[in-house]
Predict the structure.
Amino acid sequence: MAEDVKFLPTPLERSATFYVAGHRGLVGSAIWRNLQNEGFTNVVGRTSAELDLKNRDEVFAFFSENKPRYVVLAAAKVGGILANNTFPVDFLSDNLRIQVNVLDAAREHGVERLLFLGSSCIYPKFAEQPIREDSLLTGHLEPTNDAYAIAKIAGIMQVQAIRRQYGLPWISAMPTNLYGPGDNFSAAGSHVLPALIRRYDEAARSGAETVTNWGTGSPRREFLHVDDMAAACLHLLEHYDGPSQVNVGTGTDVTIMELASEVADAVGFKGVIEWDTSKPDGTPRKLLDVSKLTRSGWSHSIGLQEGIRKTVEWYRDNLTSIRT
């Protein structure tokens, strides 16, 4: 067994084949845009119709044919509290298969640098705030999305195991709550911010006098614009190496009540905001310690108010084609 790799990150070769798994999703599409903006000329991706990442034979055939030098694994089955709580088997099984297939194929076909994207839900429900990377596996998970979290934890463990056994300089990044162009705005599958944007925009358009949100509004959440996340991914690939996952966020948070108020202002809703306290709140607070990322030389550039405004504009401009 190889010791953990000793690797000095350097700028990635812009002409090399770079595979973005999940390039049509929220994060993947932002990474794709950022790579093209940064001068990468051979970025490849496949839709789920073209390549089923749950099918091991298809995944290995893709890697054999395309031989990517770099990979970002952003493909995943994702959803909000309702979806995670209702379909835990799907979130566990689908994500495990996607990860194992892609990581195994990437290892067999000699991928040089790979970044696995997880989620901040990997951390214990009552982890000390802000949450440090070493909080992983120190307590119980949030029950409403524990199946998804376990799948993502398995991905981190596989990356760490590959580093130890095969000496490959692969890394993992754990983003906070992401939002922006390409998000899922569906009523049943969306996360909190796109759900609020859709709800308030529809209320503003219809002239509704009230909007009712789930829970008490008291939980605190951290939000990062997906374009910032994409920039952080490339930064980590070019500046960081180590077995520990790296938290990616802003280092600041807001209450869901404050977030709802920001969204209402952005869409022009003037009515009353109400709260259905019979519905679950989820984790009371989830703020990431981003000091490791900051020490590597990166910090976010898009503020929450600006990011929400841009996302509302994108949502309204793409109503006929977005995931609703």
